[in-house]
Protein 1
Amino acid sequence: MDIEKVDQIIDKHNGEPSNLLQIMLDIQSENNWLSKQALARVSEKLSVPLTRIQHIATFYKAFSLVPKGRHKVHICVGTACHVRGATRILDTVEDATGIKPGETDLDLKFSLETVNCLGCCALGPVMEVDGKVHGKMSPVKTAQALKTYE
Amino acid sequence: MGDIQFEIDGQTVTADPGMTVLEAAQKEGIYIPTLCHHEKLEPFGGCRLCVVEVEDRGWTKYVVSCVFPAANDIIVRTRSEKVDRLRKTIIELLMAHAPDAPDLVKLAREYNADPDRYERDASFCIHCGLCVRYCAEVAGKNALGFVDRGINKEISFVPEIAAQVCNDCKECFPLCPTSYLQAAFVYTQALSFPDAVKTGQSAGK
């Protein structure tokens, strides 16, 4: 992410230190992660110490300090999905993408996370990709669904 | 002087508005144990060791004296059976992290705390925040801060800043009650700016 884009986001929030969290969220959604250069720029422009920004960036799970993939895959491993075979879905995704939960693949295509409930237990086992819910998954359907993402 | 009048351990003390109970006690030479308090720094309320019993209009409550504002007509007791028990548990919990910290060992003896009551989780840092706050508030360098949260919370130097300012400052070093800060610094130094070590600029050379 280039510095100009970061500057634009900071300007959008009037360079107010009180808007720090919103600025960080905007950079996160724009870029999928918070690079050191971007955070250093924010620190410089808002006159907020980098240590403070670091504390916030590591405090909230919404922020990532490592690059994330273009597609965020969430596998529900809550009770209902678990008894309906979520572990097999997770295995399928791990096999197809080559990554474990919390990781991102080398060409930044997928980031994999497990979640504890997506709130639609009747559709279990559930996989969510970029906010789109795929319900009643089987290993075969999971592998097919993943193939549709570029 | 002092607009506020109240009682600590049977002794009448005065305080100015805005003063905390701990400050009022220290002014009168009344001892309350602390770990995260430093007179140059803003009150933090991190270690909870300065807990005292406060009786206010007949109600008894347990408050952390380093952040509790002095008020008229309250009765403060710095030692009581329950206060001692609270402090003992706090010391035992901290000792799970830093079993050999001199301050803690001394307090453990005084409060009869068992260092092995809780399973050891030797992270050595007790999150008093003295180094982090001193660097931000007094030194004004912000070379280190907290990262992460909950059980994963730890102190972390910003290597770029630390490489430039820390070797000439190190004012936070004597503040650390457990010596973890020094270890964290040596670690950061070895990883990020080892040249300073080679040329003998680091401490102990």
Protein 2
Amino acid sequence: MLGKLIKHELRHSARYTLSIYIAVTVISAVMGLTLLSKATWMGVMSCIALYAAGFIAIIVTLVSVIKNFYDTLFGRQGYLTMTLPVKCSTLLLSKVIVSFTWIVASFALMGLILIMVFSYAKEKSAGYFTMISDAVSISGILEVLPSASTVISLLIMAALWAVITIFTYVSFVYFTVTVANTRRLQSHPKLLGGLIFLGIFSVNNTVGNLLTQYIPLTFNVGTDKVYFAFEQMGAVEEALLSYGVAGTAFSGIFAFGLLCFTGFILENKVNLK
Amino acid sequence: MSIIHVSSLKKSYGRKTVLDDINFEIAEGSVVGLLGPNGCGKTTLIKILTGLIKDHSGTVRIDNEEPGAYTKSIVAYLPDKSYLPDWMRPKDAIGYFSDFYADFDKEKAEKMVRDFGLDEKQRLKTMSKGQQEKLNLILVMCRRAKLYILDEPLGGLDPAARSFVLDLILDNYAKDSTVLISTHLIGDVERIFNRVLMISGGKLIVNSHVDEIREKGKSVEEVFKEVFSYAW
């Protein structure tokens, strides 16, 4: 059933986001064509349009996560979704997976846009890039940069951080929408939902910052390796970059707890209007 | 054997009691009318039976189970509002039901969509209200469910359309299953009921076999008028 739920959830949510992805594809094609012409202004306009499309894709995706969750569970479509022969936990899991997928896709799209614009600029201004590259070589910056394996490890950790952050956002949104649509609060769901979101966001940030500050566990990037250290941020002298992980770990656990609670409310306290 | 068992059911919205100490059982294979004026608690009772409302007191059992994933697999529910998303077309809706309900007859649904003049590629947002209601009913009646719960299937329809809908229900429900129809339009449907439940002010006022009513020389509609003129 989970696979079928994901399939239909993807189809439903694609309506919000697919058009923006099509727009990006068209603009990219236009930008590719401007490479053949000498009209620089067209290329510049395409770059601006691409940045804008990427930014809009992220915003549209984040908003559609909220709208889709509300519409399919607490709007009139809730009568269809909530009477499906599946457990609420399975329903919730399918929504988390699909929302997560779309958010990752929107950020991946932004990444792709940055690469495309960079490649385009490099192609159009090869002389400047050679100059910058020479300047970097002469300055000796490359010698203190981390090795390739360190960069890969760093990217893996950054990906893990991104996963936790996206999961936290999705979980906060689902919890907020669900609680705001319980019987006692559903008279003013938008206002109360906003306050609830602000509340859990503040708790997450405050506790996360305190834990990061007081729990001596850091992820560190050196020139030839990445490593964890039981020391405060800033105390690891040889590290190029030091990041306190206690706050992020708390966010992950907090988000998971809220998601479980959301499942409990959906299972036991749902009150469809 | 009873397909629905409700005991000491109570549901309030704040201080307002919507259902108060409701007790009844419905045997398998019967066609039951859930009757009462607008706002008497019929839809709330149906939402509880279908698992859309959980915060109530008392016991509710469908086929000996509390409302949940199993009961949803054996209950075909028609809400009193259009519940399919606007972007869907009849073929999407049929695919959706076919994916989730093992008892859904896809071929029959496709045939009925054609027979009733619906375009399987037309989006719901461009359909008339009547066409949407037809589609909703087709989807529900093409399941071989143990229990059909139809909330106001005749509401807002003209007499010709009511007759069409009733025939659609009678011709298509699985004969060994139970049908619970909520309505306040008694005259049109009383011919199909075996049993009637009448609710007023959140209380179950009448729970009677239709034959018992007729033995007293009355019609269901007459009893309805008596009960509700008294209850109001």
Protein 3
Amino acid sequence: MDIGYYPGCSLTGTAKEYDQSIRRVFSELGINLVELDDWSCCGATSAHATNHLLSVALPARNLSLAKKQGLKEIFIPCAACYNRFVVAKYEMEKNPGLKKRVEEMIEEKADTDIGIVNMVEMFQRIDKELILAKRQKELKGFKVAAYYGCLLVRPNSITQFDDAEMPTSMEEIIKLTGAEPVDWNFKVECCGASHSITNMNVVLTLSKRIIDDAAENGAEAIIVACPMCHSNLDMRQRNISKQDSQHKNMPILYLSELIGLSLGLDKESLGLGLHFTDTEPVLSRFSTAIVAKE
Amino acid sequence: MMRIGVFVCHCGENIGKTVDCPTVAKEAIKLPNVVYSIDYKYMCSDPGQNMIKQAIAEHKLNAVVVASCSPHMHEKTFRKACAQAGLNPYMCEIANVREHCSWVHDNVEEATKKAVDLIRMTVERIKFNFPLSEIKVPITKKALVIGGGISGIQAALDIAGAGFKVILVEKEPSIGGHMSQLSETFPTLDCSQCILTPRMVEAYQHPNIKLYTYSEVDNVDGFIGNFKVTIRKKARSVKENLCTGCGLCVQKCPIKKAPSEFDEGLANRPAIYVPFPQAVPNIPVIDRTVCTFFKTGKCQMCKKVCGRDAIDFEQKDELITEDVGAIIVATGYKLYKIDKKSKDAAVKGYGEYGYGKYKDVIDGLQFERIASASGPTAGEILRPSDKKQPKKVVFIQCVGSRDPSKGFEYCSKICCMYTAKHAMLYKHKVHDGEAYVFYMDIRAGGKGYDEFVRRAIEEDHVKYIRGRVSRVYEKKGKYIVKGEDTISGVPVEIEADMVVLATAIVAQPEAAKLAQTLGIPYDKYGFYAEVHPKLRPVESSSGGIFLAGACQSPRDIPESVAMASAAASKALVLFGNEMLEREPIVAKVNENTCVGCFYCKKVCAYNAIELKEIKDKKGNLVKVVASVNTGLCQGCGTCNATCPSKSIELIGFNDEQIFYQIKAL
């Protein structure tokens, strides 16, 4: 199966391991990711915070490219990019006047009939049996917290996520690895996002609360599907430890890394060496014994 | 020969400003068969009507076209004027030159031309009109009231008090409805049961009221003045005529742990039970889903202890038919239960508030039971999980209301008031406790209502926080309520011992089904629709079916009672007549050409198409054709448009009339 692939800027820099693990995992699962040729930035927080037209036009340009390159759907693993794309598509569908102005700006016909697929939906599409059949290792009894953050699920009227405040779709995918998702309270709370650069203390407070609640509810690792959440929860634990000597490190894994590990892929090719917080506690919990399927 | 008069109304400036009325009148007289035309400032006024009457007499008019406002507005007025002048009222037609012309145009010349066109069309049409007379229908002077809450009780008592018979049907084992569950009522804080139970007893004992509890309306046939209703009396498993209500069976029943509906699941009841001590009638019912005998065939404890041999395990549902002339629907509401499994796509849940997950996160009705002297804690404020007195309680308003993204767009109206009442009752009982209310706006319109809320804030020191709550979660034995104070612009977190959610008021789950049985419209939420929200607020669009209480929209007690009395008075207006007169604009079947395909029956929204057997002289069946029940037919014309063999015509809107009207354009 072919699907368009829009990595976005994060996946070429701070979230390289997310990109690596996605490419490895989906090739293993028989999905051909066709990277959008000549893709450009989605505008992220900057465009969205400064110029509404620009914030719609930037994703619109990429949607037009997808159309021209014959792609019906694009898979966007970064939750921030995904959010910008679905919002831009929604706004252009609702507002023909805006669509027209966008077309003038990008000097192209804006296409809104391109499907946009996020990380969780991507795994939902794959036959569960296929993942189970390809599974080489399992994480029996390992407790993890599925963390959605804010951009993947909201606004609910646009993203149509299973439940913006109490989603459970990522948990269903995690269960395929044998891990046990815990019931916790902060799965859609904000991590502080790009405040990491301008006001780090806000991020430390918010991220610490997320990690603490996951730990209090028994989680041994947090599973994410957003490069921004990952960098805040993973990278900022060092700063959290400086402020709180009691802090215990919590491995933060991308959903694709977790699935990749259970498919038996080696940690280097999944990019697990690129994390700030040690992922060894997760790796050591994978058992190799999986009974061969009939 | 048709002699037509055309009367052009200026409607002050409404028409006159855009349509040159004197020119229109001059043009109208040129039309064939028009023998008289005139324009006047206010044709609906007395002098205007007199002009029509005089013209009919002087010019021997046998048809009248009035160019004026919508027929909805003044068709009746002008037809009445014609009738007074001796003309058949159905020989008067309206050409709508206001809504269809002057109000929607601004070019005087073009609008004037259009007005002439509209008149010409009506003139061509009226040439095919013929005199019609009103249809007379007899009336059964007995009412059916569906729902035995405060609205139904009030309506039943009013009609019974006027001397007419009433059938009161309630689906629960007792009448009383939600009001019987409430502790105290706003804004006077008088005890709900104390004011309600005398009404319940009065309804039970009234010689004109026949009460069917634990019963539902299965089917409704007929039409205004002549309904035939089938009531399903569900098997109570107790013979009502023998039971004395001694309560021995209830005491001895070994099943003790069925959740009590009356106590909203906060207490348990036996398998054979009376919902609450003041229930009317005071006759128990066996819940067959939990009764040991019905599950295993053993026990029969209740039967053994009953001194009157009133227990009847064999009892079956009984179908009763009643003839009534009017129906009042007062089926009330339900509280929106936060349930993630709900199939209703409109409801996205509020799982983040932890209802159903945490025992001490409860809804408004559950708080009523906790605060009520007849409740599981005898009125002491104790939280459900550990029966301890909560020292900090957070009340969250608008859970599901005014929330298009996750709940319903509408305001549930009563929550601002009952939340203020809850917080107040809590503070009156727990003096050292703290009460917080999260709100969007305080909507306290009503007599003494805003004063009541101010009292909660100023005298009882309830802390009101304007903002929404994003999440409720448990941490170290406390419920952390995370929200926003939008006035200070800061996030707030309150460590509460108990959380009360003012969940939205929703329609009864079976509301749509009953509406379909009755043939009355309902909105997308399942609330029943009135004909006109301002001028006909208690009438459904089906003649003879009236609405009262919260089945129409969220309502408090005073409003429900007022509307119940209004609905009762509408039924009484009907009963004040011997015969019912109705417009003769109904469908008529040509039995010679009807082939009995019954497409008309499928499309009729009023169930007005019936089957009629055509027999020859020897009594052999020749064919089955459609027949119109003129009592039910509302003259919408859908059957007329649908009929493939053109065998149905709508009297007053027949094919020739419409055809020549269009042809004149």
